[in-house]
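Bench notes, afternoon.
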Amino acid sequence: MTDGQWYDVSLADMSHKNSLFEKQLKGVTNIFESGHLDAVEYWNTKGKYTGAKSEKVREYMTDHKNYYLEHKKYNRSDGASLKNKDGTRMTYDPPEVGGGSCSSKARACK
């Protein structure tokens, strides 16, 4: 979807749907989807509060609806371009089980 070309599936990676995917989908099909998070975004905002091997994290990572096939060259550069709100490169945060915004009462983090 990134460049409008068709490629052999052997050149594809499984890519997490994210905000970039949403923009590209709308541009190509005029279909709007929202709420998709890249794996790093999901972990940093929700998953790290439930633990690396928690049921919630496994559920997210194994849900086929969170993925699409994307050409390797785009998928691999997309991850490197993820930015935090302060403009720094986004990387995985360490787990924070037992604290943070998804602790006890707020376990509804999905």
